Amino acid sequence: MIDLAMPRDIDAAVHKLNGVYLYDLDSLQNMAERTLALRKQESEKCHQLIEHHVQDFQLWIERTQSSNFPSMVVELQRGGKTSLTDGRGPSASQFWRREWRPTPLARDLA
Length: 110
Description:
Layout: E1 2-3, E2 23-24, H1 25-64, H2 69-77, H3 92-97, H4 104-109
Parallel strand pairs: 1-2
């Protein structure tokens, strides 16, 4: 049962009956506040995850804009094994031959 009246119309003792649940404006407000707090916690986790991946992406951009990037392009054109990620990821030739698969986040962003 949901009692939306002010003052309340339904006696609070009905919650003692088997199978009867009584919700009033105060209990609904309490539930809303609890779920809002939980959503805020989860939102913060999402922001931290996004920040982590943004930092990774910025590092990747900085590496690709470094002075050795033109030499990597030349090596790629020659069919070389230059690494795009300082040895932590796929070689350039693997990347372009699609031997390397992106992370789930990279697939989601594409």
